[in-house]
């Protein structure tokens, strides 16, 4: 027979309302009571009936994750983190791809909210930076948490110091002896593209290296844009000895183009990326990159959102650390 919430309450010696508050991770429950209820839930293998739970509380117990990003590896990591946080709090997750540059973008999000009634949203870049959408969410009173937003004031979520991380990885190339260092920029509407470009410029300025406009080429965080950026750089009279790509997908495209041109990595060209998604460890040579804890960032953003929804805190913006991953794709220039 299906275990009911009332059965858990009876076994734990508390009211059904208290069991509901523990399952929803609401505030104002004694920790000893919370632990006792959770132990009974585990012992009886109780699983909440989501439909009944939603009807009884006028909540959907659903979080919607919105994205518009060509890097599937990055998105998978973030979504896995959001799902982990949802599972811990007995929430479900709705994932919706969107075109943030579409003229009816805000209306599409409006329709999604009305149709599915998510309790809150997790926004990933560039959706997290869309001013018209943010204004509409404020007007509707929709609670949201942002991953890597450009503007962090009065916002809850998570971020990493991407500018300093980019500065450090370019400094690594300089310390190896490279002076002609190119940068393939990420998408212009992403804060990440601007932060990583700023870190590249700062590292060169710190070393007294003049920035050559021809060595800075535009991409959009996709594999194909990495290929095109590399071809453009290889066509220069004086090609670079190292390329810092805006993310690992683009860096993988650079490796593909280098092989197309008969270049040996890292002997003829050093390549590094950003994010440390699985592809950085699956290509050969393995990519020197910056580890951005995307899964942790998705989990933390969702936890901040759920804390606000359950009244446990007002939520805040959490900074996470980065780490430089030195692998086989970088070496001193010839």
UniProtKB/TrEMBL annotation:
Q: Where would I find the HTH lacI-type domain in this sequence?
A: 3-57
Q: Which InterPro entries match?
A: HTH_LacI, LacI/GalR-like_sensor, Lambda_DNA-bd_dom_sf, Peripla_BP_I
Give GO terms: molecular function aspect only.
DNA-binding transcription factor activity; transcription cis-regulatory region binding
Kindly give the Pfam families that the UniProt entry links to this protein: LacI (PF00356), Peripla_BP_3 (PF13377)
Recorded hits in PROSITE patterns, A to Z, give: HTH_LACI_1 (PS00356), HTH_LACI_2 (PS50932)
Q: Which SUPFAM superfamilies match?
A: lambda repressor-like DNA-binding domains, Periplasmic binding protein-like I
Q: Which CDD domains match?
A: HTH_LacI, PBP1_SalR
Keyword field contains Transmembrane helix: no
Q: What is this protein called?
A: LacI family transcriptional regulator
Q: Which organism is it from?
A: Oleiagrimonas soli
């Amino acid at each position: 027979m299906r275990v009911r919430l009332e059965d858990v309450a009876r076994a734990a010696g508390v009211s059904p309302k208290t069991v509901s508050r523990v399952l929803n991770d609401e505030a104002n429950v004694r920790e000893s009571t919370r632990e006792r209820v959770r132990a009974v839930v585990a012992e009886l293998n109780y699983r909440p009936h989501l439909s009944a739970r939603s009807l009884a509380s006028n909540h959907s117990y659903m979080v919607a994750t919105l994205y518009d990003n060509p890097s599937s590896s990055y998105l998978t990591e973030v979504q896995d983190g959001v799902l982990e946080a949802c599972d811990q709090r007995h929430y479900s997750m709705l994932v919706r791809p969107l075109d943030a540059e579409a003229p009816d973008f805000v209306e599409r999000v409006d329709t999604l909210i009305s149709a599915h009634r998510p309790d809150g949203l997790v926004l990933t870049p560039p959706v997290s930076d869309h001013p018209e959408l943010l204004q509409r969410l404020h007007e509707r009173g929709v609670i949201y948490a942002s991953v890597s937003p450009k503007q962090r004031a009065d916002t809850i979520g998570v971020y990493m110091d991407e500018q300093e991380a980019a500065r450090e990885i370019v400094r690594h190339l300089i310390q190896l002896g490279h002076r002609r260092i190119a940068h393939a920029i990420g998408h212009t509407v992403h804060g990440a593209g601007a932060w990583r470009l700023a870190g590249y410029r700062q590292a060169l300025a710190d070393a007294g290296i003049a920035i050559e406009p021809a060595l800075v080429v535009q991409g959009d965080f996709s594999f194909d844009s990495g290929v095109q950026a590399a071809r453009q750089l290889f066509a220069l009279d004086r090609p670079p000895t190292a390329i810092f790509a805006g993310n690992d997908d683009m860096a993988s495209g650079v490796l593909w183009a280098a092989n197309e041109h008969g270049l040996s990595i890292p002997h003829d060209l050093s390549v590094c990326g950003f994010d440390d998604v699985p592809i950085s460890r699956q290509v050969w040579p393995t990519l020197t990159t910056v580890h951005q804890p995307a899964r942790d960032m998705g989990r933390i953003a969702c936890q901040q959102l759920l804390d606000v929804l359950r009244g446990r805190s007002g939520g805040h913006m959490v900074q996470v650390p980065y780490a430089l991953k030195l692998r086989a794709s970088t070496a001193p220039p010839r």
